[in-house]
Amino acid sequence: MPVTIFNTPLVTPILRVIAAALRGLTGWRAEGVVPDVKKLVVAVAPHTSNWDVPVGIILALKLRINPKWFVKSSFFRPPFGWLCRWLGAVPVNRSRATNAVMQAVRALQDNKEIMLAFTPEGTRAARPYWKSGFYYIAHSAGVPIALCYLDYGRKRGGLGSLLWPTGDIYADMEKIRAHYAPFKGLHPEGQGPVAIPPPDTVEKSAD
Fold first, then answer.
1. C-alpha dist (Å) from residue 122 to 7, 45, 72, 151
2. How confident is the model at residue 97 (pLDDT cuts 50, 70, 90)?
3. Could you say which DSSP state residue 80 is in?
4. Contact 166, 63 (CB under 8 A)
5. What angle, 0 to 180 degrees and rounded to 10, lies between the N-to-C axes of helices 133-141 and 169-180?
6. What backbone torsions phi and psi does residue 67 show, to the nearest 5 degrees?
7. pTM, rounded to two decimals
């Protein structure tokens, strides 16, 4: 999945050079191998700072990936609409959580090649639970989940192994919890547990 930010072949090499310089200055390194899968959901964690976005972009350019992510449709109004599109954002109507999930599933089904990224924590502050939408989206669309991480402790980030949702979200969350256990966000105090609510309170949100 080659990087096509701005959909301009002349821009991408320039961005890659700039990203390489920033990685050298900051000490960040990209890890992992881009899976040979045309469609997948990317779970990005831990998410504790606004710095996660620029760090994620310079690492994505190294890995030559161009993930898309959902942003509230209101952000696409002037003056931020062009920036959202430039960064690969996809507008979503979040009036209903289930509606947002179905929009994501349709995006995965309608595109021949797409990588949808989500931050399951839903916010930079500590929460008792992750949002489960990323899991249900992947399971409904029949695509795997790439466990993407940002580890500020080692200044390393990248794509981990693929997890194919089995439909047993609680069993699969145990594997996800084990994967993310070693990684530290910029503000570790903002990291909540890698867990989802009990069955009777699960919120199927695409955040």
1. 28, 10, 13, 18
2. low
3. T
4. no
5. 120
6. -70, 150
7. 0.83
